[in-house]
Amino acid sequence: MTFKEVMEEYFKSWGLSVRLSTSISHKKSFAYQCGNLLDLDIIDISKKTIENHLAEMLSRLAQSTVAHWNARCRCVLEYAYKNNYINSDFYKEIIHIKVKNTYAISVITEKQFKQLINIAKAQSRHTDLEEKILFLELLFKTGLRHSEAKALQVYKINLDSNEIRINQSLYCDIKGKWELASTKTPCSNRTIKIDKNLALKLKDFIEIKHKNRDDFLFSYEDGSPRTTVFAKDLLKKSANLLGVKISAHGLRHSHATMLIRNLVPIQLVQKRLGHADPALTIATYTHLISEDEKIIVDLLEKIW
């Protein structure tokens, strides 16, 4: 049995837990970097074989690319071991290549967001300006993922209890083809509270646009949901004028930052964001928690 055949089996199994397009893209990327490994018999592959391949990759590729391939290779080999295609768990001893953290979380404060919205309101050349502003405010005030906000339908918004139910994500490719899928993880299925001001804005928007129960909250005239780039141009332009750098996903980080800095328990932040584990929330926002240790020190100094 070749490494390629085992790889195919692994991705077929792994693909059951992710979107089809995700499985296809990950397999294509992994296979491309495998090179001659694909033709080797799985029982002939050893720790040395993999580490030689990693060394060759590091000589021509970015460390992050190699690190991601390395992590996936270990998964494939673990699959092979568990299915008795290889009789050694040598994959556990393969050198670990750390992914360099080149992405810094960009966040803005509540004050900066208000300033950004005021700037956005002056961008009259943008079509559907009010809808875009409402979309950005929803992201900042709820911490929803961009894909979750696009998937919202009217019936998922309870204006009596001021709650939003999140149970789907909407993905769109560059050609405009969209797919309504499950959320990122089962734990991303959640119901969250919203403030009365936002609830009123959503209510007015739904009434003005004559939205029906099953309509997408944010949509084109034909009823189809907004694409991936929706409101991003307005956000970028307004952020540049304000002198800050922020992305649509950064608004989600900004929401979490606001909660943590106001001492909301990490478990509540985790549930609101739809993280599977509090450890993920802590790992993502460790820098904030470390910074806010000063709050504790200031409190102790006041006591004594």
Largest sheet: 3 strands, antiparallel
The count of β-strands is 5
Helical segment tally?
14
Name the strands of the widest sheet in spatial order.
Answer: 1-2-5
Structural class: mainly alpha
Radius of gyration: 23 Å
Query: What is the percent of helical residues?
Result: 40-55%
Average pLDDT confidence is 89
How would you describe this structure to a colleague?
By secondary structure, the chain is mainly alpha-helical. Helices cover 53% and strands 6% of the residues. A 3-stranded antiparallel sheet has the order 1-2-5, with no helix packed on it. The protein has a two-stranded antiparallel sheet with strand order 3-4. α6 runs antiparallel to α8, α6 packs parallel to α10 and α11 packs across α12. The model has no long low-confidence stretch (mean pLDDT 89).
